[in-house]
Amino acid sequence: MKNTLTFLLLSFFLNVLFINAQNPDKSFMNLQDFEKSKQEFIIKEAGLSKEEAESFFPLNVELQKKKLELHRKHQEDMKQAKETGDISEEEYKKLIDNNLDIKMKEAELDKHYSDKFNKLMSPQKLFKAQQAERTFLQEELRKYRESKKDGRISTGQRRK
């Protein structure tokens, strides 16, 4: 459940960021500022050296893009099913099976990239970096939700 929540958070922010990157004038969040804040937070929290950071972030972005591709296909299928309105039991079964397939493919990606990450840094730093990213994304989502209540949007400031 926690992994699903984390991925949903990440997917949400990546979708928003990629959409906003295409039209920065209408963006509520600057992609470069967001990534810079995220990287600074992870470097600080995980204690990454410059060399570790330079090798970790490109690989991490690559992994997240692959996960996002998996979920976009599933989202398209879900949207199409909702638009048709009358969904058969067989179609529901197919959606459930597709969801399970995505989770399995995501786990395979995590395993594959885990091996790559372990070559870059110690398991302790890798764990801390992953936890820091999760914390950052959760905090950004919390701030986004609060800003929707207030009618304002601000990102990049950490809550103490």
| Share of β-strand residues | under 5%
Estimated helix fraction = over 70%
* Structure class: mainly alpha
What are the secondary-structure elements, in order, as H or E? HHHHH
Number of helices: 5
Record field, number of beta strands: 0
Give me the Rg, rounded.
Answer: 17 Å
Overall tally of structural domains: 1
Span from first to last CA? 26 Å
Overall morphology:
flat
Question: Largest beta sheet, briefly?
Answer: none
Instruction: Give unreliable regions as ranges.
Output: none
What is the arithmetic mean of pLDDT? 82
Could you explain the architecture of this structure?
By secondary structure, this protein is mainly α. The chain has one domain (about 1-20, about 30-150). It contains five helices and no strands. It has helices at about 1-20, 30-45, 50-85, 90-120, 125-150. Helix 1 packs across helix 5, helix 2 crosses helix 5 and helix 3 (about 50-85) packs antiparallel against helix 4 (about 90-120). The longest helix has about 35 residues, at about 50-85. The chain is flat.
In short:
The protein is mostly helical.
Keywords, separated by commas or semicolons:
mainly alpha, single chain, 0% strand
Topology record:
Layout: H1 2-22, H2 31-46, H3 50-84, H4 89-120, H5 123-150
Helix pairs in contact: 1-3, 1-5, 2-5, 3-4
